[in-house]
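hiii so my PI (J.) wants the whole complex modelled not just the main chain, which honestly fair. so below is everything: two entries, each one labled with what it is. i double checked the lines twice but i was tired so who knows lol
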Amino acid sequence: MSQTRSDRLNAMMASVPYMRFLGMSAELAGDEMTAILPFAPHLVGNVMLPALHGGVLGAFLEMTALAQLSVREPQRRMPKTIDVTIEYLRPGRALTTYARADVRKLGRRIANVHVEAWQENRASPVAALRGHFMLSSEG
Amino acid sequence: MDDTQIDLQVLANAMTQGTPQSAALGFEFVSVEPCVGVLKVNWREDLVGDPDTGVIAGGVITTLLDHVSGLAVKAAKVDFNGTATLDLRIDYMRPAQPRRAIFGRAHCYKVTRSIAFVRASAYEDDPDDPIATAQGAFVLTGAPSGVSTQGAAKAAKP
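here's the output for the full assembly
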């Protein structure tokens, strides 16, 4: 069962070119997903620190929300982002970044998702996102 | 070239090829005027977010809007070292058209001593028909040369 779920998630992530561009992957423990973004030089936004680009962190959080929704609702097509609010808490350093999404509400048409990203210490998140996503009615 | 043109060229390079993520996404400099900046990203196969439709990933637009907001802040107040994004809200009005270049335009409408406030939008041709709009707050980092350093010194000696 979880193997099937994991296969579906990997297939979904492999099918999205932009997720490959970022270099992100994900691991599943039951229905709980951890998205992983290994550090890569092309993700840097500030070469002096160096720090990950704020847009990269925002994008990683948004992609994590979409991937988590696909785990919850595998039969549906890719949801469409309605809005996201990204909070930047600490600079994203040149380290692997992790994220977990919490589907706060899964309605018939709209999902509300909170996502948090961290690096070495889960208790010190680097960024967080709250967003609404339109679920496809197809499938 | 006069000094202004040279400064503009330096800024244009710094905001495109000078930032690894911006270079990786292929951001192009379009224009800058006081408080306003415009950048462009071309559609690319490897930036697609929905393989069924070929629509570019929301994350690319997020990065474009974040980045062009930084340009608008620089265009509003050149006297500081850098910006760090505090928060960014993005509303997606409609999907981007596949295989079309996307422009990001940002207006820094208010700068305080430490925070800049920016509105931005992304569109293909018509700024009045946006793909997405954004509202962000940015922290100005690093001591501005001259003025604020003196201010800090004064503050340290009450």
